[in-house]
Amino acid sequence: MRSEKEKMLAGDLYVANDPELRSDFKKAKKLLREYNQTTEDQGTRRQEILKDLFKKTGNKLPSITPPFYTDYGCNTVIGDDFYANYECIILDIANVKIGDNVMFGPRVGLYTAGHPIDKVIRNEHFEYGKPIEIGDNVWIGGNVVVNPNVKIGNNVIIGSGSIVTKDIPDDVVAVGNPCRVLRKIDDNDKKYWESEKARYFEN
C-alpha cells in the first residue's frame, strides 16, 4: 500500500495527519523559523538554510527576502538566479518547479493544494495537490496567486494582482482575474529596452 506522501505527490487524495508528512512539515517549520529571523548580514546562513530546505537548487542559490513561507520545501525545485520579494508563499503539497532567472514581486503565492468540493469528503480531512511549473526568464508581479495544476511558459510576465488558473504560453504578458494573455512580447520590446539601457550609460 502506498504511503500518504506517495499519494500526495501523485496528486491523489491523501490525509496530512501522517507521521512522515508531519516530520517533513516540522523540519520545514524549524528551518523557516530560523530563516525568517536572520539578518541582512547573514547571507551565507540564509543560503545554507535554503539549500537544506528545497529539494534542489541551481548553482546560483536563491535569494528570498524574509519573511518566506512554505509547507515542505522538499517538494520544490528552483533553478539558477531566483529572487522572491517579501512574503512569498509556496504551498508545495505537489511538486513545484521554478526555472532559471525567475523573479517574484512581494506577496506571490504558489498554491498546489486543493480540497474536495464535496463537504462530507472535505470534512473527513482529505486533501489533494496538483503541480505548478514556471519556466525560465519569468517575472511575476506582486500579489499574484498561481493555482494548482498550472504551467507558466518561458519569457513570461504576469501582471500584479493576477490569479493564474490556466496554463500561460511562452513569450507573453498576461494579466487579470482570471489571468489571460494580454499580448505577445516582440522585437519592439527588445528595441525599446535596449534604447533605455543605452540612455542609462549615456548619463
TrEMBL record:
<dbReference type="Pfam" id="PF12464">
    <property type="entry name" value="Mac"/>
</dbReference>
<dbReference type="InterPro" id="IPR018357">
    <property type="entry name" value="Hexapep_transf_CS"/>
</dbReference>
<keyword id="KW-0808">Transferase</keyword>
<dbReference type="Pfam" id="PF00132">
    <property type="entry name" value="Hexapep"/>
</dbReference>
<keyword id="KW-0677">Repeat</keyword>
<feature type="domain" description="Maltose/galactoside acetyltransferase">
    <location>
        <begin position="5"/>
        <end position="59"/>
    </location>
</feature>
<dbReference type="InterPro" id="IPR039369">
    <property type="entry name" value="LacA-like"/>
</dbReference>
<comment type="similarity">
    <text>Belongs to the transferase hexapeptide repeat family.</text>
</comment>
<dbReference type="InterPro" id="IPR024688">
    <property type="entry name" value="Mac_dom"/>
</dbReference>
<dbReference type="InterPro" id="IPR001451">
    <property type="entry name" value="Hexapep"/>
</dbReference>
<dbReference type="InterPro" id="IPR011004">
    <property type="entry name" value="Trimer_LpxA-like_sf"/>
</dbReference>
<dbReference type="GO" id="GO:0008870">
    <property type="term" value="F:galactoside O-acetyltransferase activity"/>
</dbReference>
<keyword id="KW-0012">Acyltransferase</keyword>
<protein>
    <recommendedName>
        <fullName>Acetyltransferase</fullName>
        <ecNumber>2.3.1.-</ecNumber>
    </recommendedName>
</protein>
